[in-house]
Write the structure tokens for this entry.
Amino acid sequence: MGAYLFMKSVMLALSQIPESKQVLLKQLTEDLDTQSLSWLSGYFAGLASRAPTGQTAQKIASVAPAVAAAPRPLTVLYGSQTGNAKRVAEALYEQLRSTGLAARIVRADRYTTRELKDEQLLYVVISTQGDGEAPDDAIGLVEFLHSRRAPKLPSLNYAVLGLGDSSYPDFCGIARRIDERLAELGATRIHDLGTADLDIDTIAKPWSQKALEQARAVLQQNDPQQPSASITPLHPKTGRFTREAPFEAELLLNQPITAPGSDKDIRHIELSLDGSQLTYQPGDALGIWPVQSDALVAEVLELLALDGEKPVSVNDIEHPLKVWLGSHRELTQLTRPFLQAHAERAKSAELSQLLQPDQSDSFRKFVSTHQLADVLRKYPAAWSAEELIQGLRPLAPRLYSIASSQSVVEDEVHLTVANIDYEFEGHSRSGAASGFLSRTAEGERVRIFVEENSRFRLPVDTSRDVIMIGPGTGVAPFRAFVQERANQGGKGRNWLFFGNPHFDSDFLYQTEWQAALRDGQLDRLDLAFSRDQEQKLYVQDRMLEHASDLFEWIQAGAYVYVCGDANRMAKDVHATLLRIAQQEGRLDPAQSKHWLDELATQGRYARDVY
Ligand SMILES: Cc1cc2nc3c(=O)[nH]c(=O)nc-3n(C[C@H](O)[C@H](O)[C@H](O)COP(=O)(O)OP(=O)(O)OC[C@H]3O[C@@H](n4cnc5c(N)ncnc54)[C@H](O)[C@@H]3O)c2cc1C
Ligand SMILES: NC(=O)c1ccc[n+]([C@@H]2O[C@H](COP(=O)([O-])OP(=O)(O)OC[C@H]3O[C@@H](n4cnc5c(N)ncnc54)[C@H](OP(=O)(O)O)[C@@H]3O)[C@@H](O)[C@H]2O)c1
Ligand SMILES: Cc1cc2nc3c(=O)[nH]c(=O)nc-3n(C[C@H](O)[C@H](O)[C@H](O)COP(=O)(O)O)c2cc1C
């Protein structure tokens, strides 16, 4: 009933707007994310509040340029691949607003770079990806800043907060380079670069607090008449349940979808959203708060000879030690600060050597293979319960691309999860979240939240074709896409590229794809089973085989999506798209790069890679 009344009021309101303006409105809002839409709603509300009742559209419009040309006192600009920098930026923005400062928040790819020279105060919050690369949404901004087109910025005040992982050689590399570049362009750094490791809040919270104080000082200095309120509205939340207040969802189905004998154990997981009012769209991810296995907690307690029942109080929060370890601390991922502290306790020259700056490759390999228990066994050292809890990184939720369309499965959400489960030096090890999900039985509860990903969206125009490239678990969002497109009943064609090691054991959702092909919901399916022949065969080999058709689809308006492994696959697929543009479109390397950048700018080349 609520939805009906809402739609009715939208229809009524729309009918009051001339048809030509409705078209413009649709164009303006088509690809915008919720935050931008929300900002626009505040902008229009601001215009409306300035106009006396009954004022004509023409008169209202005459107010617009004045509002648009108003100075931009404070912008929080973020670049984020998996939502961490976005969350930190949003928290900073909320803090600024709640103290009455007129701030706005903008995702990097929505930022008009020519606005830079008009900014008074700019806060950049950005993660580093790849090997020191920008997150996808900030590639254009970073390129612009380092290009010769970047303007001199003598009146800009700024500060940069980087998010990263100190086990990577180029820790917070992108933030460092932006920080240096803005100074080179003549801007004034008002606050030191912050470099947040995986325990993000340790650095991000004090940095944001300092940023808040500096903003007050700078803005008051520049403009004593600084308004005490902003018209920018709060961004809408996905629902009542959030990352910090997750929903306890019942697990409905936990089904292996790789066959026995496969090297992989991939699960199809179904969870109930019943009673949560959580909503999601194809392209979004689901956040999962894992619980560590009892066996792992017991192993850590035994290695340290600590009592799991002992109450431990950290920052005024008290739990028994085993609860801290089971639900609040990372045991499967190691951080540089913890290993530094442990090397000193263990007086281990070997571990200390690994932490030297010139050992970054060995260090990266070490942390990607060893878990906490492996380190405690190899390099024994004593920790008190309190020191251990303070030294370990707080547990972080893991994200999983949603593999269902809510318009089809309604009160459910589906995932495709690779269970990380391996032997290391004689001990069985598993991933915190994938292991947790894999051992969770039907009927048990899992703490979840929806992580919106407005950069990975199906075209609004259902007559557009889509090309989906998703090997391994990367196929997950494309199950959601195909379900959604079938439900929409549009004319656009769907083409899926999927790959995995073996046809016999690893063809994820085989019967569903075959049924979709039969029913015309999937128009083309190209498969690359990498280990079924002597030479490796990957999705990009199939793309090259069909380069002519692929280029033709894209030139005719198709959207291209890539999901899955960021380190190898996504880079190779990117290079293959450039190669196809050169080969089929007769473009030179610079032109093909421009072609792909343009597709990305239009939202027609989107990646969800991890
Ligand atoms: C936006 C997004 C979407 C994602 N979607 C999916 C999805 O649909 N399906 C999916 O399965 N995953 C997906 N992931 C990855 C997922 O979030 C986790 O990173 C993954 O499940 C590993 O988490 P874990 O807690 O099980 O392992 P962790 O506890 O984080 O890692 C345990 C140990 O295993 C190592 N390790 C990690 N991955 C592997 C691996 N593959 N093989 C061997 N060792 C490994 C780590 O280095 C560590 O030492 C997505 C990630 C993002 C950011
Ligand atoms: N941390 C790690 O050590 C680690 C290791 C593996 C995966 N992962 C992560 O786990 C995620 C899920 O893995 P998954 O098991 O679903 O799939 P996956 O490991 O990405 O494998 C899926 C398919 O992609 C193939 N592949 C390998 N390299 C490729 C490349 N350069 N280009 C195109 N295809 C390539 C694989 O072939 P082959 O395997 O036969 O080469 C396999 O057939 C990955 O996306 C990745 O982020 C992490
Ligand atoms: C594939 C991948 C590559 C990464 N590369 C780097 C890196 O080179 N340097 C770094 O400091 N952090 C690196 N990180 C860590 C991220 O920056 C860190 O997890 C950050 O919190 C992510 O923030 P976001 O969710 O806003 O993107 C990498 C993470 C992933 C998944």
Summary: The chain has four domains: 71-222, 247-290+397-451, 294-391, 466-609. The domain at 466-609 is CATH 3.40.50.80 (Rossmann fold).
